[in-house]
Amino acid sequence: MKQDPSSATLIDYLKAVPLYILPQHLLSRMMLALTRVRFAPFKNLHICWFSQQFNINMDEAKQPEPTAYPTFNHFFTRELREDARHIVSGEMQLACPVDGVVSQSEAINDGRIYQAKGHHYTLKALFGGDQQLTETFQKGCFSTIYLSPRDYHRIHMPCDAKLLQMQHVPGRLFSVNNASANVIPGLFARNERVVTLFETQHGPMAMVLVGAIFVGSIETTWHGVVTPPSRHNVKQWHYEGESQVNFKKGEEMGRFNMGSTVIVLFANPEVKFAENIQAGEPVQLGQLLAEQQPQE
Q1: Please, is 110 exposed, middle or buried when counting C-beta atoms within 10 Å of its C-beta (0-12, 13-18, 19+)?
Q2: Could you read off the pLDDT of 16-52 as tens digits, one per residue?
Q3: Does 54 reside within a domain?
Q4: Which residues partner with 271 through β-bridges?
Q5: Residue 242 sits in which domain range?
Q6: What are the residue numbers of the active site?
Q7: Would residue 82 count as lying in a domain?
Q8: Backbone angles phi, psi at 87, to 5 degrees
């Protein structure tokens, strides 16, 4: 892992500290409404501005014409062409679930996950206090991947898997950019998030979809919109019997309606991240994320 300098900069603080006083959920709900406006002149103006501002590559989109999308949110969560990404196919290879940039990627150390600039947070806090989940991943590893506004915002499966449970953990909606990660303690365990647990041939795998300011909604393919509404307490769903959900590697499992962060965790200590999966490295959906090492 690339090592960060030991302390945050003044610019980091100037960007992050005002987030404490902003009405995060109110602003995010306003963004939720605005991104679903269908009035063509309004939504086309914002889609065109956004495309130019962030240099969006529409050539890889299934619908390459920006103004053809009925709302800004449809544009933001646009589907890719089938040939736009290659999914690694090796049986022991795990695919990157999103486009983005790696924030951190390493082993879980004594139940603690490294955030940035000397900040850590605990597995138990990330999992909303779930002790069983905490014990399951105690000796595993994690990779935190940040999705910028210009990235593709659908989330896909790293491997074949069976869904076991999902939980919505209420929380704040701080920004999840580098400045916030450098300054705000326990950022990813404080923000609202959706925790999903899967059974795979590589052992238990969790994918945590972290909300952020202006992320008006997180949804999964099997449930639909999970948030909003926000809740005061953790809500959990279990999937077994008739409600069992199975996935193939590369299959879509969810999406951010506006961008944020995904944390992928593996419980099996034999799962090792690829050499290029380290802090600051850009990644694309489908590339090699990790590989299960053969037992000696």
Answers
A1: exposed
A2: 676 777 676 777 778 778 888 999 999 999 999 999 9
A3: yes
A4: 292
A5: 93-292
A6: 99, 156, 260
A7: no
A8: -100, 125
